[in-house]
Amino acid sequence: MSLELFVLPSSGGLYPRRVLIYLSEKGLLSLPNLTITTTSGPSHSALGKLPGSVPQLRLTTPLGEVSHILESIPIINHLEDLCDVAQTTASSPFIKKNGESKEEEDDSVWRKRTRSMRGDTPGQRARTREITALADEATTHFSTACRFGSAMFALLAPRTNGDYAATQAALVACRRCLVQINAFYDDDLRFAESIGKSDGSELDGEVLVGDCLVFALLQFAICLYGVNLADGAVGERDSGVTREGGRGMEGRVAVFGGVGECAGAFSEGVVWVEVDIYTGGWKQTCDDIETVE
Fold first, then answer.
1. The sheet that has 56-60: what strands, in order across it?
2. DSSP per position, the chain
3. Is the alpha carbon torsion for 26, 32, 33, 35 positive or negative?
4. What CATH number matches the domain at 2-115, 3.30.420.40, 3.90.550.10, 3.10.20.30, 3.40.30.10?
5. pLDDT at 33 over 80
6. Which domain of life is it from (predicted)?
7. How far apart are CA 249 and CA 149, in angstroms?
């Protein structure tokens, strides 16, 4: 089976970013039968891509049958399913094109690819599904706030009082999701080794699917809109610790330590990759989009 992922050029797009971060964490970017294709033009077109938004995953079987997956979370889940299958059968998309079997590949790469990023137990998988759902909801609310409240979209149409009210309501809803997400990370010791809270479990430092979605939102918010959601979400005042913040959007933010630890796990040593529109190659970037030389 061959896979082709369609994304926007450079770092554009929050939803393609989710999949690229996942691919990097999963060790799939070097997969020989995975092609990452950037779209072009105002219609974001590319050969083999269906009309519509990105990301899109195009799957071609050895018999030439073609199908598409058109949403970021189903794309990630499908790739996870393929990884699960790869652990139990020799017929997997991870066998190299030159005929080398998975046993002949680098052991560390293979372990990374076949490690579940949805959790190993029913409890871990349920937790991952909850964080994934909350991160997706928070992303929808933040995108709505940007659509109605940012200066970039104001170029398309004049702002009205209704737009500002919608922005504030969306930010409040985004904040509520982040409060719930933060509760999960406050009890999660995977990313706490640097502050002496690690419990020595096998999952220490290992990123799961939900973490990728949370990080994609945090990175998108701070890089494109200057809003640091790792420090908190703009919206209702919190009875806890607050500080002024949110460049580009006014409001008060509540500090979310657990979410910040999740972000730190990426920024302190986990790099992700984005398509370099100028060279057509890959460049490694940290969470602040500074190129790693």
1. 34-38, 2-7, 56-60, 66-69
2. -EEEEEE-STT--HHHHHHHHHHHHHT-TT-TTEEEEE-BTTTTB-TTPPSS-S-EEEEE-TT--EEEE-SHHHHHHHHHHHHHHHTT-S-STTS-TTS--GGGS-HHHHHHHHS-SS-SSHHHHHHHHHHHHHHHHHHHHHHHHHHHH-HHHHTTS---HHHHHHHHHHHHHHHHHHHHHHHHHHT--TT-GGGT-----TTTT---HHHHHHHHHHHHHHHHS---TTT--SBS--SS-EEE--TTS-SEEE--HHHHHHHHHHHTT--EEEE-TTTSSEEEE-TT--B--
3. positive
4. 3.40.30.10
5. yes
6. Eukaryota
7. 8
Chain position carrying tokens 């490694």: 284
Domain parsing of the chain, residue ranges: 2-115, 122-272
Lowest mean pLDDT across 32-46, 67-81, 154-168, 256-270: 256-270
Q: What is the pLDDT of residue 60?
A: 93
pLDDT digits (tens, 9 = 90+) for 229-263: 876 533 333 322 222 232 222 222 333 555 655 55
How many residues are recorded in the chain?
293
* pTM of the predicted model as reported, rounded to 2 decimal places: 0.74
- How far is residue 256 from each of residues 104, 137, 221, 242, 244, measured CA to CA in Å? 44, 18, 15, 10, 14
